[in-house]
Specification:
The chain has 5 helices and 11 strands. The strands form 2 sheets. A 9-stranded mixed beta sheet has the order 2-1-3-4-11-10-9-6-7. Strands 5-8 form a two-stranded antiparallel ribbon. The relative contact order is 0.18.
């Protein structure tokens, strides 16, 4: 399995390490042609305005719009996939909605269909303002959705790559396996 991590800015190293630990070949993606042959893509946390600027500069915005494999976005990655940015998911997200850096926090979340708490690290985290009827909420924090899925897209407003818990990445890889079987 070959998974790309968008490597223009953000938590590239942390996602790559977690994916490698799960036995995945990781490709750092900086140019559109590096998406060719990938089974999935991670859009990491970072700064969404910088992401969009660099993605437009390198043509990655249009390349992502035509990329057909599963995509997993965390924090800023969630923002760039929403209606107001790349428009790939039917959700609207507010940037830094939980507050500035000093308001960052950690919380135990309940992952749907799993009784073991999932530790979430929220750093200048986005908040979901609205989402479409076909978007599934997989985890909440104080009643607010923080992990969502729509078809081949998975997004988190927190940073699962900053913990030892691999379940969110495994959930993404399960979708990659499902989609690969369908495309094969």
């Amino acid at each position: 399995m070959r998974i790309g991590v968008l490597a223009v800015q953000g938590n590239v190293r942390e996602h790559a390490a977690m994916l490698r630990g799960l036995g995945v070949e990781v490709v750092e993606v900086r140019k559109p042609d590096q998406l060719d042959g990938l089974d999935g893509l991670v859009v990491p946390g970072g700064e969404s305005t910088t992401f969009m600027r660099l993605m437009r500069l390198y043509g990655l915005d249009e390349a992502l719009r035509t990329f057909a494999a599963p995509v997993f976005g965390t924090c800023a990655g969630m923002i760039v996939l929403d209606r107001r940015h790349l428009g790939l998911m039917d959700l609207e997200v507010d940037r830094n909605a939980y507050g500035r850096q000093v308001a960052s926090f950690e919380a135990d979340l309940r992952l749907r269909d799993d009784d073991k708490p999932l530790h979430g690290v929220f750093i200048r985290a986005p908040r979901v303002r609205d989402y479409g009827f076909d978007v599934e909420v997989l985890a909440e924090n104080d009643g607010e959705p923080v992990l969502l899925r729509q078809g081949r897209f998975l997004v988190a407003s927190f940073h699962p790559e900053l913990t030892e818990d691999t379940r969110v990445h495994e959930l993404f890889l399960d979708r990659v396996r499902e989609e690969s079987g369908v495309r094969a």
